[in-house]
Amino acid sequence: MDAPHNTPRPGADEAPRGPGADEAMGGLSADEALRATGVTIREAGSGDAVAGVMPRWVALPESTEEVAALMRVSAGHDLAVVPVGGGTRLHWGNPPERCDLLVDTCCLNEIPEHASGDLVVRVQAGVTMESLAETLAARGQELALDVPVGGSTVGGVLATAVAGPRRLRYGTARDLLIGITVVLADGTIARSGGKVVKNVAGYDLGKLFTGSYGTLGIITEAVFRLHPITPARRWITAGLPAPRTAATGSEGSGSPVGPGTVEGSGFPVSPRAVSVALAASQAEPSAVELDWLAPSGVLTVSALVEGVAAEGRAAAVRDLLGGTAGESGTTGESGEWPVGSYGVAEGDKAPDWWGVLPGEEVLLELRVPPSGVDGALRAVARRGLPARVRGSLASAVLQVALPPEIGGPELAAFVSGVRGDVGPLGGRLTVLAAPPEQAAPVDRWGPVGALPLMRRVKERFDPDRRMSPGRLAGGI
Amino acid sequence: MALNELVRRVAGVLPAGAVITDPVRLRTYECDGLTHHRVVPGVVVLPESAEQIAAVVRLCNEYGVPFVARGAGTGLSGGALPRTDGVLIVTSKMRRILRVDLENRRAVVEPGVTNLAITEAVREHGYYYAPDPSSQQVCTIGGNVAENSGGAHCLKYGFTVNHVLALEIVTPDGDIVTLDADDPGYDLLGAFVGSEGTLGITTGVTVRLSRTPETVTTLLAAFENIEQGGQAVSAIIGGGIVPAAIEMMDALAIAAAEAAVACGYPAGAGAVLIVELDGPEAEVAHQFAEVERLCRDSGAFELRTAAGPQERAAIWKGRKSAFAAVGRISPAYIVQDGVVPRTALPNVLASIDRLSAEHGIRVANVFHAGDGNLHPLVLFDDAEPGAEERAGLVSGRILDLCIEHGGSITGEHGVGVDKSRYMPKMFTDDDLDTMQLVRCAFDPRGLSNPGKVFPTPRLCGEVPGVRRGVHPLVESGRAEQF
Amino acid sequence: MDPELINDCVHCGFCLPTCPTYVLWGEEMDSPRGRIHLMRQHVEGTPLTDEMAGHFDACLGCMACVTACPSGVRYDRLIEQTRAEVEREHVREPGDRALRELVFQLFPYPRRLRAMRLPLRLSAGLRRRIAPRLERINPSLAAMADLAPESAGRPRLPRRVRAIGRRRAVVGMLTGCVQGEFFPQVNAATARVLAMEGCEVVIPPSQGCCGALSLHSGRPEQAGRFARRTVAAFERAGVDTVVVNAAGCGSTMKEYAEILDGEWAERARAIRTVDLAEYLVELGPVARRHPLPLTVAYHDACHLAHAQGVRSQPRALLTAIPGLELREIAESAICCGSAGTYNLFQPEAARELGERKAERVLATGADLLVSANPGCTMQITSAIRRAGTAPIRVAHTAQVLDASLRGTERIA
C-alpha cells in the first residue's frame, strides 16, 4: 500500500523501450509485457482500490503514446483497465467488475498550449484543475468550470461530468470542451474536435466521453474554450425561513403546512419562486446556489454576479432577494415576485459552502426541471433524514449528502421514496457515491431511457469489456 | 424491386397524399441548398408524427433500403442529398410547437418548426431561442440539430448543442428513444447533435429558451483595410470582452451587399466590422465605450451606433444579405465555410489574397471574426471555360489553409457529401475509424443517410484500424458495403 | 419561361415560409423554390404534366416570395410567363375551362359585372341557405356567391373633382372593376381625400379594366389590350400621374412598361402609377386630421406590400390620425387567399388561408380591419362570417382617412 511511485518491482527485468517494444511482446507474461512498454509500472497497494476492487498494477504513463502502448498490452493479455486521475471520485459509480491495471494519469501533466489570443487551452488529462487555473490566470483567463472537489484532474472532471455553480451561465464540461484525445481499449489513439470553438466536422467524441466513467477508453488530452476572468464578482446571500414541517421520520407524512406557508410548497418562501425570479432577472447572475440541511434547516440562497458592473447588478439581485425582508412569503404558483426572506448579505467573497460538495461518502444527485424544485426539496424533507442539500438552485441540479453511517435498506428507502416523488415532476435521482455494501440494495442510476443505445456504444468501443467494466448504469 | 414493394407498404402507414412517387414532383427534392449535388430520391414521404417516421424506418430496415431525413432543404453541404435507391423522409409537415414552458425556460417542438418560429412564439414574454443561423426564418430545428447550427451570435451563446435539453429520435432501426441531457452516462444527446442524420432522425426537440437581454448595442466600424479590422477584433477579445457577435466583411463583400440591398455602409471602407454587445445595461455601456475606443485605436475612420431595432436591422442588413447578394456581382460563386484560430486570421486572409491573385479568381470575404469562422465567397463566371475548376481549386485550397492552421473544414455548414473527401486531411484513419464505431453502434446496417460525413465505405463488422481485402462478411454475402 | 430568370434562383429556400401554399401543405412542389424547379424541368424538356400545371395553378401570385428573396429572383415575371405557357399548352378539364372563361369574360368588364351583381347580391339569410347547395354543385360558384359583399349605394363619380384649398397637384384616378362595382364608396372616399389634400382629381369615364386579372392568370394578350386602353384613357385625360387605390391594379399598372412593347412601352412609361397611400405620404398632409377613437388592424394586401413594397405608408397615414390605435396582424406577410381570381379557381386552399387570416385578424381584438384591396376585404369578411364569429367592420385606408379628414366618426 505504501509502494512508492516510479519504483519498478524488484527483480523485474529491464524490458526493451520505445518503438519496437510491441514486437518483443510475444511470449511475455502480462507483467513482463507491461514493463516492456517502458512505462513506469508499480504493484498496486490497498490505496489504489477502485470502489473496493484492488488492481494488480498501477501504470504511470507520460504520454498519449505510452497510454496506447499500455492499452495494446492490456488487449493482448485481457487486462481490465481503470483510468484514474486525482482519485478524488474513484469511489463514485459502481465498483468495476474487475480491475487488473490502474492507469494513473498523474504524469500526463503538461499544458502544451495556451493560445490566449484564441481563448483556447490544450491540456493533458492529468493536470489538476487548480494548476490549470493558475496557468490560465497568469494571462487573465479561466476555464469557467467550477469543480467541487480539490485535486481533480482534467480527465477525471470529464469522465465524471462534474460541474459547479456557474453551470447556469457557462454550462458544464461538455459545453466547454472543444477537442479531445482518447486511447481506446485496443490502443487506438483517436482525436475529435480541434483547437477552434466553432467546428462541426465529424462526430464529437468529447461528448461521448463526458460522463463515461472510464468505460469507453482513456482520456489523455483535452482542448477547452476559455473565458476572460471577470474584473469583479459579488455574492449576494440570503436566508430563507425553514420549512414548517414536523420533522418526523415517518414516511409520507412529513409535510404538514401551517398557515402563512406557500400553498403546496411547505416552504414559507418558495425556493422555486426565488429561483425563477433570479434566473429571469436582467441582472444575469452567473450562479444561484442553495445550501440547506433538510428536513428543517434554514435555507441559504446565494447568487453570484460577475462583470465590470457587478456592484450595480448585485444591488438589483439584493433588491430581488430582500425586497420584502422579514415579511412572510406572498408568492403564488405563478412565481411572481416578491418573496419574503431573512437578512441579505453581500460581498466579494463566496460563502464558505459555495461550490463544495455537501458530503463525500454517501452522495446523491437530484435533478428536476426548475419548476419542480419545491417538490424535490419536499421529497427530501419528507424522508426525515438529516440530508445536506446543496447545488444549483437555478439549474435545479442539487447534490444531497446523507449521513455516512446510513444503512443499506435506509438508503434504498430514501432513494426509492425520493424517486417516487420527483419522477412525476420530471426529476431524477442518482447515487453518485455510496460504499458498495450500503449501495448493494440500491439501483444507483434509476431508469435511463437511452441505456440500450449506451450499451451498443460500449459494445463497439470495448467489445471485450475491459474498460472499467460495470462502472456505469446497466452494468456498462 | 425492394423499393417498389416498400413504397406500397409505406402508403399503408402514412396518411393519404404523404407518399410522393410522381417523377416530376420527386425531382423538386433532388437537392438541398447546395445545388451542385443532385440526386432524385426513390420516393419522398411526408410523415406527420414520430410513430409514422418510426414505421417508415422499420420498413426501410425490413427491405434494407437507405433513408435520408430532410427539413426545409436549406443545408449547404448536401447533407440532405437523397438516394435514388432510398426514401427521403421530409419533416416539413411536423411543425407544431407542442409546449412552451417559460418557468422551466424550455419549449418542446416538432422537428419541422423553423428556428425563428420558436423565438417568435416566446418573444412577447421576454425570451428567445439563442442559436440564430442566417437562414433562421426558414431552416428547421430538426436540421439545426443534425448540423449543430450556430449563427452570428454563437461566439457568446454557443451552438445548437448548447441549447437542446432533450431529443426524441427514431433510431436507424426504428425505435423511438429519448436522449436527455440529464441522463447519466455517455452524452449521447451531445453526440447525436451534429451527426448530420447519420445516427437517426430527430422527431422532437426540447430547446432551452434564453432571456432576452436587457439591452443590445450594435456598432458598425469602418476601416481602410481588413488588417485594421482584424487588429480591432484581437484588441476587443484580448481586452476581455466577449461580444454577442463580431462580424467582418471585406471591400468586395461590401460592394455586393451595397448592390443588393443598398445597405449604406461608409463609403471607401476596405472592411467593416459589426460588433454587437448585449446583456445587463451597465455592463454593455462599459464595454461599448471600450469597444469604441479599441476600434478607433485600430484605425476605424467611421463608427455608427444603432439606436434602436430599426437601425440595428439596417446595420445587419448588409451582412445578412451578403451571401445571396454576391449573385449580383458575379454570375456564379461558391460559399466556403472554414475555421481558423482567430489569431491566424491575418495570415490566412493574406494567403487567400495570394491564392486569389494567383488563379485570377476573386474572393469576397465575409466572416464571423470572433470565432475565426471564414465564409470566403469564391466568385467565377460559369460561362468562362475553366473558371469553375479554378474556383473549385481556390475553394479547396482555402480549406487546406484552415487545416494547416489548426482549424476546421467546417464551422457550421457541415460535412455532408460536399466535404467528406476532406475528412482524411483533418483526421487520421484511426480518428475516423473511431467515429465509425459510434456510427456502427447506432446504425449497424448503415441505412441512415449513408454516404455523408465519412469518405470511405466501411463495414461495421470490420476491426477498426486494420485494413484488409474484401471482408469475409461481404464475400459470403451476409453484409453489404455502405 | 426565361432560363436566365430561372438561373437566378440559388435554391436557398428563404421563400418557403412566406409562401401561402407551403405554409398550408409543407410540400416542396408547392413552394416558390419548387415551382421554379418545375419551370426549370419544363424548360429542360419535361412536358407540362397535369401535376406540374396543378402546382403552378396553386400559386396565389401573392409575391411574398419576391420580397423574401435575397437573390432578387423575378418570380413575378416567371409565374406570369409560366401561366401563359400553361394556358397555351395545357388542356384543362372542361368544367375548369368553362369557369375560367366565365370569370375572364365577366370580371374585367364593369358593365357585365354590374349585370351580374344582382344575382350574386343575395341577402345574408338567403346566402346561408343557398350556400351548402352551391357548395355541392361547384365550390367555385359557392365561393363567388360567398364573396359578393353586401350592396352599397353606388355614388356616381364626376369626371373631375376640384382641389379643396390651394391646388397642389393634378392626378388621374383609376376606378377599377371590382373596386368600382362592389366598393364604389371606396372610390368616392379616395377622390374626396385627394381633393381635401389639395389634388385636382381627373376620373376618365372611358377607363376600363387595367388588365391585372388577365395578366395574373396567363392571358397576356387580353392583359395587353386592357393595358393599352388604360394608357390611352389617361393620356386623353391629360394626366401624368395616376393614383390607384386597389393594390392589384396598382402593381399591374406599374408593370405596364414591361408587359407592353415598343411605342406602347414608352407611352406607359410616361405615366406614373402610384398607390394612394404612397402618394399621400409623398405629398405630405395639409388637411386637418380629426380624431377617430378606433383600434385598427391593418392588413397588408400582397400586391401592395410585396408587389409594390408599400408597407410603411398606410401605417404612417393611419397612425397619424389622433386617437387611432394601430395593431399588427400576426403572419402579416402571408396572403389571405384572395389573390385576384384565386379564390374562384382554388376555393379550398383559398378558404383555408382565409380562415387562417381571419383567426389572426380577430386575435388583434381590433374594431376595424383596414386593407387596400377589395379582394382581401371580401375574402377576410367572408371567412369571418363562415366562422360564425361576430363580424368585424372593414374599410379601405381611403375611407378611414376620409372620415378623419371630414371629422366624422362614420366611415362611409
From TrEMBL, chain A:
PANTHER family: D-LACTATE DEHYDROGENASE, GLYCOLATE OXIDASE SUBUNIT GLCE. It holds the Pfam family FAD_binding_4. Signal peptide: none annotated. SUPFAM superfamilies: FAD-binding/transporter-associated domain-like, FAD-linked oxidases, C-terminal domain. PROSITE patterns: FAD_PCMH (PS51387). Residues 1-26, 243-265 are annotated as: Disordered. The lineage of its organism: Bacteria, Bacillati, Actinomycetota, Actinomycetes, Streptosporangiales. Residues 50-229 form the FAD-binding PCMH-type domain. Gene3D superfamilies: 3.30.465.10. This is FAD-linked oxidase. InterPro entries: FAD-bd_PCMH, FAD-bd_PCMH-like_sf, FAD-bd_PCMH_sub2, FAD-linked_Oxase-like_C, Oxid_FAD_bind_N. GO terms for molecular function: catalytic activity; FAD binding. Keywords: FAD, Flavoprotein. Residues 251-263 have a biased composition (Gly residues).
UniProtKB/TrEMBL annotation, chain B:
GO terms for molecular function: FAD binding; oxidoreductase activity. It comes from the Bacteria. The keyword Flavoprotein applies. Gene3D superfamilies: 3.30.465.10, 3.30.70.2740, Vanillyl-alcohol Oxidase, Chain A, domain 4. Residues 37-212 form the FAD-binding PCMH-type domain. InterPro entries: FAD-bd_oxidored_4_C (IPR004113), FAD-bd_PCMH (IPR016166), FAD-bd_PCMH-like_sf (IPR036318), FAD-bd_PCMH_sub2 (IPR016169), FAD-linked_Oxase-like_C (IPR016164), FAD-linked_OxidoTrans_Type4 (IPR051914), Oxid_FAD_bind_N (IPR006094), Vanillyl_alc_oxidase_C-sub2 (IPR016171). Keywords: FAD, Flavoprotein, Oxidoreductase. Its cofactor is FAD. Pfam families: FAD-oxidase_C (PF02913), FAD_binding_4 (PF01565). PANTHER family: GLYCOLATE OXIDASE SUBUNIT GLCD (PTHR42934). This is FAD-binding protein.
From TrEMBL, chain C:
The keyword Cytoplasm does not apply. Binds 2 [4Fe-4S] clusters. GO terms for molecular function: 4 iron, 4 sulfur cluster binding; glycolate dehydrogenase activity; metal ion binding. Coiled coil: none annotated. Component of a complex that catalyzes the oxidation of glycolate to glyoxylate. It comes from Planobispora takensis. This is Glycolate oxidase iron-sulfur subunit. The gene is glcF. It catalyses: (R)-lactate + A = pyruvate + AH2; glycolate + A = glyoxylate + AH2. It is an enzyme of class 1 (oxidoreductase). Its cofactor is [4Fe-4S] cluster.
